[in-house]
Design a protein that fits this description.
This protein is an alpha/beta fold. The chain folds into 2 domains: about 5-175 and about 370-385, Rossmann fold (3-Layer(aba) Sandwich); about 195-365, Rossmann fold (3-Layer(aba) Sandwich). The protein is built from 15 helices and 15 strands. The chain has helices at about 20-30, 45-50, 55-60, 70-80, 85-95, 95-100, 110-120, 155-160, 210-225, 260-265, 280-285, 295-300, 335-340, 345-365, 375-385, and strands at about 5-10, 35-40, 60-65, 105, 125, 150, 170-175, 195-200, 230, 245, 250-255, 270, 290, 305-310, 330-335. The strands form 3 sheets. The chain has a 7-stranded parallel sheet. The protein has a 6-stranded parallel sheet with strand order 12-9-8-13-14-15. It is globular, with a radius of gyration of 21 Å. The protein starts with a strand and ends with a helix.
């Protein structure tokens, strides 16, 4: 009997697509007892998913758009600039689609609204995180409602179990599917010189991101030091909204814009909405990573290098600098002045932290040469639906 597995891409941007699209393609090509359904919230995401999935698999997939009635779309669009109401509305409007499948695969927990609405009449749910699992939000209690978890490495299994979210037998370690979408030997050049390339990758969370209070000063440093190149490539959601609100910290801030002087600099590349934000082009091109709480640091660490983490909230009272485990991959700094002092020593910093980076990368990303993560993920999903 054919099982229907729906891969849900219900977001407003395509930054999560590479975490599960390849698994969908692998299943479509190699699992004859599975009907793959790909459901997308917006056309831009559908385009990115189709780009990742091999062309040979396209005709074997049932493609669905999670469209809303025009009137509802227009009514909710202004509100969506502050809160993700369109994502929720799409789920409820397409409940019949979810009733028709056996398993939903998602990179976020919004889909669990469907589970709560449909109850026993609905499908089972599988979770593939789109991050490295170091912040508290990665272990939200709601995640316990998933039936299966496909995780990148043993760290995430250990933490899911430690937080009481799941048991080890509900987890499958598959590696990081996004790595299957790139050639690790290829590093794009974005500047016509051989100066070191620094990547600034701030998050959007108004409480945790360095952008709101430090971003301008970081760029000013590189404007004044043309012997370094800088790529400013924030989390794609940072510039999707002007006002950001953190549910986790009950904090709201207006996002600062980027001054023209930075856009005009020949040693600064600024990209707030381009496709290179999604495909690891910048993390692979950089020699040095500057960030705060984005898990993209582990994508940068595929080839290792110096990391500087900017903490906008100051030194913790207990004196422990590493609020998050991934901050052990580099140096934690508390302001642009400290960063300016450390940048000239980036090579020494990279060497100093190399052993810890090797340890944390292996613990977080079960990356196996000669074995793709998408194949491991597809096999886990196929086995799961066959025994249910």
């Amino acid at each position: 009997m054919t099982k229907r597995i729906l891969f849900l891409f219900n977001h407003d941007a395509a930054h999560q697509a590479a975490h599960i699209a390849g698994i969908a393609g692998e299943l479509a090509l190699h699992a004859p007892t599975v009907q793959v359904v790909v459901a997308c919230g917006v056309e831009a995401i559908r385009h990115k998913v189709a780009e990742i999935i091999p062309a040979a698999a396209h005709d074997r997939i049932e493609w669905r758009m999670l469209d809303l009635p025009t009137a509802q779309q227009r009514l909710l669009a202004p509100i969506n600039k502050v809160a993700p109401v369109l994502r929720v509305a799409r789920l409820y409007w397409h409940l019949d689609l979810f009733r028709s499948v056996d398993l939903v695969v998602s990179t976020e927990r919004t889909c669990l609204r469907v589970r709560r609405r449909l109850g026993a009449a609905g499908p089972r749910f599988a979770y593939v995180p789109h991050g490295s699992g170091d912040r508290n939000v990665a272990y939200h209690p709601e995640l316990a409602q998933f039936d299966l978890m496909l995780l990148s490495g043993p760290k995430l299994v250990d933490e899911m179990v430690r937080h009481g979210i799941t048991t080890a037998d509900q987890c499958r370690v598959i590696g990081y599917p996004k790595f299957d979408t790139i050639d690790p030997a290829v590093r794009k050049r974005f500047f016509d010189n051989d100066r070191p390339v620094f990547l600034y990758n701030p998050h959007f969370d108004p409480h945790l991101s360095s952008w709101y209070g430090m971003g301008e000063a970081v760029m000013d440093f590189f404007l004044a030091h043309r012997d370094y190149n800088l790529i400013v490539a924030p989390h794609v959601m940072l510039f999707r909204k002007r006002l950001h609100y953190s549910l986790e910290y009950r904090t709201a801030k207006l996002r600062p814009d980027i001054a023209d002087r930075f856009r005009a600099a020949d040693n600064i590349l600024i990209d707030v909405d381009g496709p290179n934000l999604f495909d690891m082009s910048y993390t692979m091109a950089a020699d040095v990573y500057i960030g705060d709480v984005s898990s993209q640091v582990y994508e940068f660490l595929l080839h290792r290098g110096a990391c500087y983490f900017l903490d906008p909230n100051g030194k913790p009272a207990d004196g422990v600098a590493e609020r998050y485990e991934f901050w052990r991959n580099g140096e934690v700094l508390y302001g642009p002045a400290e960063l300016a002092e450390r940048i000239p020593h980036w090579r020494e910093s990279a060497a100093l932290h190399r052993a810890e980076q090797d340890r944390l990368f292996a613990y977080t990303m079960d990356h196996r040469a000669g074995e793709t993560s998408v194949a491991r993920g597809a096999a886990a999903l196929e086995a799961f639906v066959e025994v249910r």
